[in-house]
Design brief:
The chain has 344 residues and is of the alpha/beta class. It has 12 helices and 7 strands. The protein folds into 2 domains: 1-11 and 175-306, no CATH class; 22-59 and 83-173, no CATH class. The protein has helices spanning 10-20, 22-61, 71-80, 86-104, 119-130, 132-144, 150-153, 167-171, 232-237, 267-270, 290-302, 326-337; strands at 110-112, 176-179, 199-204, 222-226, 242-247, 256-259, 271-275. Helix 2 crosses helix 3 (71-80), helix 2 (22-61) runs antiparallel to helix 4 and helix 6 (132-144) crosses helix 12.
C-alpha cells in the first residue's frame, strides 16, 4: 500500500519531519530565549548598580571630588565588586547576540547533504555550529566572574564541538532533520552523536538498502525506519536519543520497524517490525554484502526466543534516560550560565 508520503518531494518531507519534532524545537528555542533575557537583565542590573554607586560616591565625597576623582571607579574600589569591566560587558553582549540568533532562527535544524558529501561530517558540522549556544553560555559565566581570558576563551564565542558538550548540554540538543541522497545514506557513523536527547531524522528519496539503521540499534537508543510521518512522534517524545529514517514511500525491499528502549527488557520486546523484506540468496562462495548483514542483524534482534514468554519474569529493563520536560530545559541552560544574583 502506498504511504501518505507518496508524491511528496524532499522539501515536503522535511517540513513534515520538522513538524513532528515541534515539541523539541520549541523547547530548545524557549530555553535559549530565556537565557537571552536573563543575560539582558543581568547586564542592565549591573549597569544600574554601578550608576547608583557612582552617584552615591559623589554625594559622599562632596565638592572635593569634583574634577579630581572618577566617582564610579572610586565606588568600585570601595567595595561591592559588582561593576562589569568593559571587556566583560563586550563578552556578554556578544554572547547575547549569539543566543538571540539561535532563539529566533530555525535554519540550523535543517541539514542538506550534497551529492557525494559525507553524512556523518554534515551532522557533526551542524551540531558543532549549534555548540555556539553552549559556548556562549560558558563565556557568560567566565566573564561574570572576571575569568574570561580572550586568548584562551574566545573559542567559546565561535563554536563548541559536540565531543566537548557536557551531559546537561546534550540533554538540551536541538533536533536535526537531514536531507540525504540514497547513494550517500551511510548512517553507521552517526552513532557517536546519539547521546543525551539528540534526535536526528534522515529524509531520503528513492530506494535504499533494506535496513540502514540496524547497526544503530542499542538498548538506550530509539530507532525507527518508516514511511509514515506519524510514527516519528515516538522519537520526538522519547526520553532517549534517537534516529529515524523517513522514506518517501513504502517499498517491499525496505524494512520498517521501531526500536523503543522502554518497550521491554530484551531486544525482541523492544523491536516492532511492521515489514521485513525477503532475504535474497547469495551465491555459494560469495561474501555476504554489508546490507544483507544489516538485515540479518535486524532479524536476529527481532526474533522471539523459542519457548520464552514475552514478559520475562525477573527481567529488569534498562533504566531510561531521564526525560527533561520543556519547563526544565531553560533551567538547564541557565545552570551553565550561572548568572547569580546582583549584589550577591
Amino acid at each position: 500500500m502506498p504511504s501518505e508520503n507518496s508524491g511528496l518531494d524532499s522539501g515536503d518531507l522535511t517540513v513534515a519531519a520538522l513538524k513532528a519534532l515541534t515539541p523539541r524545537v520549541e523547547a530548545f528555542h524557549s530555553a535559549v530565549a530565556t537565557a537571552v533575557e536573563e543575560i539582558r537583565t543581568f547586564v542592565t542590573s549591573r549597569r544600574g548598580a554601578s550608576e547608583y554607586r557612582a552617584e552615591q560616591a559623589i554625594m559622599e565625597l562632596g565638592p572635593f571630588a569634583v574634577g579630581r576623582l572618577n566617582a564610579e571607579k572610586f565606588a568600585f574600589l570601595l567595595g561591592s565588586g559588582e561593576r562589569l569591566s568593559t571587556e566583560a560587558e563586550g563578552v556578554l553582549e556578544r554572547a547575547e547576540e549569539i543566543l538571540d540568533g539561535f532563539s529566533m532562527g530555525e535554519e540550523f535544524h535543517h541539514v542538506v547533504v550534497g551529492p557525494g558529501e559525507d553524512l556523518r561530517d554534515a551532522v557533526k558540522d551542524a551540531l558543532d555550529h549549534v555548540g555556539q549556544v553552549f559556548g556562549a553560555s560558558r563565556a557568560v559565566e567566565l566573564a561574570r566572574d572576571g575569568r574570561f581570558e580572550p586568548d584562551e576563551h574566545n573559542v567559546f564565542l565561535s563554536s563548541l564541538a559536540f565531543r566537548k558538550w557536557n551531559r546537561s548540554e546534550r540533554q538540551l540538543a536541538p533536533p536535526l532533520v537531514v536531507e540525504v541522497g540514497n547513494e550517500d545514506l551511510l548512517p553507521a557513523g552517526l552513532g557517536e552523536f546519539l547521546d543525551g536527547l539528540v534526535k536526528i531524522i534522515l529524509v531520503v528519496k528513492g530506494p535504499t538498502t533494506p535496513a540502514p539503521l540496524a547497526r544503530l540499534i542499542t538498548p538506550g537508543t530509539y530507532v525507527v525506519q518508516t514511511a509514515d510521518v506519524a510514527e516519528l512522534s515516538g522519537l520526538a517524545s522519547s526520553p532517549h536519543p534517537g534516529v529515524a529514517l523517513l522514506f518517501d514511500e513504502e517499498r517491499d525491499e525496505q524494512a520498517r520497524f521501531v526500536h523503543d528502549p522502554d518497550a521491554g527488557a530484551t531486544p525482541s520486546q523492544r523491536i516492532t517490525v511492521t515489514h521485513m523484506p525477503e532475504k535474497p540468496s547469495v551465491g555459494h562462495g560469495r561474501r555476504t554484502p554489508v546490507w544483507l548483514e544489516e538485515l540479518e542483524h535486524l532479524e536476529a534482534l527481532a526474533k522471539k526466543p523459542a519457548g520464552v514468554a514475552l514478559d520475562v519474569e525477573g527481567a529488569v529493563p534498562s533504566a531510561p534516560v531521564e526525560e527533561v520536560p520543556a519547563d526544565r530545559l531553560a533551567a538547564l541552560l541557565l545552570a551553565q550560565v550561572d548568572l547569580g544574583t546582583p549584589g550577591a
